[in-house]
Design brief:
Length: 229
């Protein structure tokens, strides 16, 4: 995968960190079990399929789709024995066409597998397309999603005794805080700011006001950070 820091996108939506998300539908006696996992690369995305083949070893189909990267350049799907184009592609389209905000389709770093237990009633090609698409869409309706942004990490060095209060003040002002480290002679707070000059300049002015000009921002690299809604 291309370096995420080199992407054109500065934000996208993904699954919140945590356990795999599961959702089940029954359509004409067939069970469609959708399992979704956040995945940062193809190995992680494919690992979900391998694990579910073992867990649901008696199921007839383990169809899959995943989309990866801030720019969503990696998109894969697999019908796993269903008629060509009736499972994997509808699943993939449900992922890439998902609106996370009005008019915004930016879901990525998601691996989805639909495990099907055949119920004895043939669905036909159109029925399969609808079933696999609906399975993923219904799972996404209740899945925990989070926005992920590329943020500029800026360090602020302050005295130990001032670190806690300054961190609280910055959080109260709406800034996203990264890790704080305590060194022998000072504490280093790290802010995660939007990666643009105006936002960084505004943060520098706010910091100067909070510290009486005693502390300044030191620009570091960028990181992708989950931002609470």
């Amino acid at each position: 995968m291309a370096d995420q820091d080199e992407s054109r996108a500065t934000a996208y939506t993904t699954l919140a960190l945590g356990d795999d998300f599961r959702h089940e539908l029954e359509i004409k006696r067939s069970r469609f079990i959708t399992v979704m996992r956040r995945a940062s690369n193809e190995d992680a995305a494919r690992a979900l399929v391998a694990e579910l083949r073992k867990e649901f070893h008696d199921a007839r189909h383990h169809c899959s789709a995943f989309v990866l990267g801030p720019d969503r350049v990696i998109q894969r799907s697999n019908d796993d024995g269903e008629p060509s184009g009736t499972a994997g592609i509808p699943m993939l389209e449900a992922l890439i066409k998902r609106e996370t905000l009005l008019g915004v389709t930016d879901l990525s770093d998601v691996s989805a597998v639909v495990v099907r237990y055949f119920g004895g009633i043939l669905l036909g090609a159109g029925g399969l397309v609808r079933a696999y698409s609906e399975s993923v869409s219904a799972a996404l309706d209740s899945a925990p999603l989070v926005q992920r942004r590329r943020l500029r990490i800026c360090a602020v060095a302050v005295a130990h005794h001032a670190a806690g209060r300054l961190e609280n003040d910055l959080r109260s002002a709406g800034y996203v805080m990264a890790e704080t480290s305590y060194e022998p002679t000072q504490a280093v707070l790290r802010l995660a700011l939007p990666d643009d000059p105006t936002a960084i300049a505004d943060a520098g002015e706010r910091l100067a006001a909070l510290t009486g000009g005693a502390s300044g921002l030191q620009l570091q690299g960028t990181e992708w950070v989950d931002v609470p809604g």
